[in-house]
Amino acid sequence: LIRISGANLSFDAGLDSNIAPLEITAGSFSLIGDASLQSLAFSGGTLAGTGNITINDTATFSGGTLSNSGNITLNADSSWSAGTITGGGTLNIASATTFSIDGGLKYLGSRTINNDGTINWVSGSIQQVDNSIINNNGTFDIQGDISLANTQPPNISLFNTSFTTLFNNNSGATLLKSAGSGTANLGGYSNYFGTAGFVDIANNGTLDVQSGTLNILGSSNPTNSIGIFKTTSTDGSAPLILLSSGVFNLNSGATIAATSSDQSSPSGLTRLEGATLNFDGGTGFDLTPDISPF
Hints:
294 residues; ten-stranded mixed beta sheet
């Protein structure tokens, strides 16, 4: 075990620690060279540097600040329950790997998250503290009434700020809201703090709301989509995709649809409440059965 619990430790060369896990509870661990770690337990302090880090067993992010600017690759099931993920590099979730987002409020800064596996966002909202990117190539499942937004800035320096998360739901990928009878927000603002947070969705895969409402607040930057926007009702409820702001260019092949296992019950709706929806490409759109401008 390598434990950092208050000291400031810097490695200028690489680190191969496939035998010993790394635990950071306080202080600073800075890695300049690349590292291959058996596991990571990160609950406090700072993980900094520029080196690429591969974690071959479980990684738990339960506090502290990940500010390393390299590429972090998770090759085993891992979790994020607290703390800040930022630094400008990437966080790569490998295929056949599950990344669980749970716990309480956490902070997302200038990082790109590349998901080739499964992200289960179970609990705890995410506060935007910078611009970020999410590239979803697998499954991103929202399992509660939670938010990715800029509504609770952690300090006064982030008052009166505006941040955007670009969410690329790529071909073959699924962005899902599978649980929570209320509303999950992708984007949000606070008049009190003068903050605004946007999530711009480019959907070339499938966006499927199966429970409650998914409220999307995009910026004025247009996104292009050729994928499926749909609601799926399995219990007689009426799931809702709510487009509250943003500019969505739906190109030829894009689909807006609703399905229900009980055809006597409501099957759901896509509702336009302030966003701009541009249909580009002539034919090829399936609006089945409902889109509402109100």
